[in-house]
Amino acid sequence: MTTTSGAPATAGLPLSSTQRLQIRDLLHQMWRALVVDITNLAVRFHSHEEPAVAARLAGVRRRLVDVESALNRLDSGSYGRCDGCERLIAFELLEAVPECRYCQRCQPR
Ligand SMILES: [Zn+2]
Q: What is the torsional sign of CA 8, 11, 16, 19?
C-alpha cells in the first residue's frame, strides 16, 4: 500500500522517498522487460533481418534509452522536472509514464 496519509496532494513538490522508490521500481521493471524484448528481437533479426523487426528493435532501443536516462535523473536528483518549463511533473503522470520528461502542458505532440 502506498497511501500517503495526511500529505496534501501538492503538485509542485519534489517526490517523497516512497514515491521515488515506487518510480525506481517501475523503471527497473520496464528496463528488465525492454532488455528481454531487445534480446528476443535481436535474435530474430540476426536470423531473418526483416525490416519490421529492425523497426521494432529501434523502437525498443529508444525506450530503453529513455528509461535509462530516467534512472540517471533519479540518481542525480533532476528527475521529475519538465524539460520544457522546468516545473515539476505531476506524480500521477510519472506513475503512468515513469520515463516522461515533460509536464502535461509541454507534452510534445
Ligand atoms: Zn512543462
A: positive
